[in-house]
Amino acid sequence: MMKGRSLFLCLFGGLLSLVGCTVKRMPEGALVRVELTHSGTMAGYEWYGCVEPDSTGTFVLRAMKENYGPLFQKQLSPETMTRFRQIIENEEMFKYKEAYHPKMEVLDGWGWSFRAKFSDGSSISSHGSNASPKGNGLARIRGLITELIQDGIQIESISD
Asked: Can you tell me the distance from the alpha carbon of 88 to that of 123, in angstroms, rounded to the nearest whole number?
């Protein structure tokens, strides 16, 4: 009986190691870049938003105000990055899978991608095609970008 239990525990432990029981944690460093895209069936991004430092270290937001619209730009304070970081932490976006796909094959549809980089060198990267993670993280990131870009300056026209 003892031999059977030991064998079972050994096999069960081996199975768990194959499944991968690593716990994903929120990165320790400050958020230094965040990017979110949404694609439809037309060429190019349906919607794009990205915040990253420029060559002087100033955070710059580049985003569309509307789907398939031109790009706008605006400088942001470093404190604004904490708002994005709080969304990532509160919505547990650091636990997102690398890829999301529907159970059934879809030949037409939509896609998205999310990336975040931190000062400690860690990053989060996730994307999906016709499927997305649970929760409101992606919508909240897009909502904050949309809110912040409203008084931005247009840097690209639709005909570019």
From this structure: 12
